[in-house]
């Protein structure tokens, strides 16, 4: 009897303990969890249970149906200007919430400029054009969308048939060349930054239409499903051309160069960016019809397995039926949560011939460019004759330190960005970046204006910099091409 009673008690205790285990409450997940819509717009919300499966038995409701209503399938309709909360509830599951902001259709939309660049890996003047566009975007138009057509010179591995069709339509007969919103082109083949200033768009910063990209990409199947939509306030036409393309960044290949690679014909490695890989639509765009100031078109596309998806972007732009100008444009990374490789710009990674092995420096300038990063520029007054004109050596050192001035000590060049070290001018994966330490030959005319425009450049690989108490600096480093360079700054006694 005692044994039986003990067994009953033991079972009861175990049941109580089991019932005390924490219960993980499931939740309805809405995608997206916030929306910005114009009056009259519709949007279908996606509901899942903990983002794991499509939710069923969902009851949809709105906090204010006069602002944003929702039907039994989760389709939201923007009714009037204001803010409303869409609620998705299910029995035994924590509800999901989406905040909807509704506004009236504006009279104009923010405009993004479209740069169509024409280049080729056998075009020796093209790196100069790439650098000009890079400087222009970074200094003037950070919201510009840049695509590169490998056309205007000989065909290369990145050339696709659509490149030539667009180039011929714009009257491109050589490279480097470019067009801004298809309104103006560079005045010459070998353009320099000053040309870009001459052709800078001077019209309004707003557009008569908007472009929005909504897409999903399955990394396993490589299936891309996207919808491009927008609003048009110009009522003079109800038909437009919508173009959609995919571009890829960080493509490493050859590149001829008559200037930047310092008397060599070709970079051993060059990082190409913004390369047009394929058109999802026709090369001149598909016709769309605007109804009630709105348009929308959906596409499916199988992305090539040869492309690095994380370095790809989807680009969409709208034009009149005449194909120009480009009214507005938008882009989005192919893979959600990535940059699409947009932080990479065209740059030479390696080159065959090294720089002068001894550089005499005359002045130093240090400036903070981050909490733990001090940029030290060492200038030389000695001119060097280059293709682009008179140039002067400048050593740019990225010093990892919290100090605001260059202090005495020995700094080792390495790749891990450790405090007290100098950051090498290349990544561990040997892909170059805009940052990092390097030796450049900069145009004397630009230096006089306080800017550094590289004419030639070499990435600093390894070595050290010794700063003496009296301010003297001795920098010995190896370039990526293997040349040992000694740069010295000796203060006058």
Question: Structural class, judged by helices and strands?
Answer: mainly beta
Q: Can you give the mean pLDDT?
A: 84
Radius of gyration: 29 Å
Separation, N- and C-terminal Cα atoms: 105 Å
The overall number of domains is 3
Q: What fold name stands as the CATH topology of the largest domain?
A: Immunoglobulin-like
Which CATH class of the largest domain is shown? Mainly Beta
Question: Uncertain regions: pLDDT < 50 for 5+ in a row?
Answer: 188-195, 427-434
- Tell the overall outline: globular
**SS strand fraction:** over 45%
User: Tell me about the biggest sheet?
Assistant: 11 strands, mixed
Give the proportion of residues in helices.
Answer: 10-25%
List the total number of helices: 5
Question: What is the assigned CATH homologous superfamily of the largest domain?
Answer: Immunoglobulins
Q: Could you say what the CATH architecture of the largest domain is?
A: Sandwich
- Strands, count: 38
